[in-house]
Amino acid sequence: MAAQINPSILSADFARLADEAKAVDGADWLHVDVMDNHFVPNLTLGVPVVESLARATDTPLDCHLMIEAPDRWAPQYVEAGAASVTFHVEAAAAPVRLAREIRAKGARAAMALRPATPVEPYEDLLPELDMLLIMTVEPGFGGQAFLDIMLPKIRRTRELISKHGLELWLQVDGGVSESTIERCADAGADVFVAGSAVYGAEDPSDAVRALRAQAEGATAKASWACDH
Ligand code: DX5
Ligand code: ZN
Questions:
Q1: What is the DSSP letter of 228?
Q2: What is the whole-number distance in angstroms between the Cα of residue 19 and the centre of ligand 2?
Q3: If residue 64 lies in a helix (H) or strand (E), which one and from where to where?
Q4: Domains of the chain, CATH where assigned
Q5: Helix or strand (DSSP H, E) at 190
């Protein structure tokens, strides 16, 4: 699969979300960070904003729920118009049931791992998912420094995906920029969330194009992708 670039609107101007969505016309998805001030120490937006944003843009919404009780709330984000819904495994009571419910409602189901959460215990769950998100910062804020120590986890996850022959997308989120995206792609990521690197740039669409070119260049040389 070609590299996908998902700008995170966490770094956009929240008073102008519809315009900010249009400012990144080359984006594959718009990454929407939902924070509840419990799972993470920050508060952003909820279902009504996602509903309005889904109406205001043709770019599909990739909702990243950094919230407690995702079993209760995640289905509402599908109904609000999100095409992909990501819950954190650390917060989910029944991740398999939840992933199945998200898929049954018609969205892609994704599961996120905080930096200290290993992937190995979830190997058997991977076929239930459309995407796995490996956080490359502690979730909660944009603009943090990329955690290099996550690269081995990305590599091991890519090996699991190959071992089982899965169509699972592997997303990275946090500190992804022109100086880190190639390492992520080389390690096996194929979906890249970038907040400050896109919305902090002079021209967000140019930043998306540049990140995509870097990711595709690094993927073409990566050992994990040579049989594709
Ligand atoms: C952090 C969020 C990220 C954030 C990334 O908890 O999940 O999506 O927007 O921002 P940058 O790319 O600036 O690290
Ligand atoms: Zn995010």
A1: -
A2: 20
A3: strand 61-66
A4: 4-226 (3.20.20.70)
A5: none
Among residues 28, 33, 130, 190, the one annotated as catalytic is: 33
> How far apart are the C-alpha atoms of 198 and 150, rounded to whole Å?
22
CA 9 to ligand 1 centroid distance, Å:
9
Pull the structure tokens for residue 27. Answer: 């984006």
58 is catalytic: no
Q: Which atom of ligand 1 is the closest one to the Cα of 200?
A: 13
Residue 46 has phi, psi (to 5 degrees) of -135, -160
33 counts as catalytic: yes
Alpha helices in the chain (DSSP H): 17-22, 47-56, 70-79, 95-104, 151-164, 181-187, 196-199, 204-221
Model confidence at 1: pLDDT above 80: no
Give me ligand 2 centre to Cα 194, in Å: 9
Size of the chain in residues: 228
In the structure, which protein residues have their CB atom closer than 6 angstroms to any atom of ligand 1? 8, 10-11, 31, 33, 64, 137, 139-144, 173-176, 193-197
Q: 150, exposed or middle or buried, with CB in 10 Å at 0-12, 13-18, 19+?
A: buried
Residues with CB under 5 A from ligand 2 (ion): 33, 64, 173
End-to-end Cα, the chain, rounded Å: 8
5-52 residue pLDDT tens: 999 999 999 999 999 999 998 999 999 999 999 999 999 999 999 999
Entry pTM: 0.98
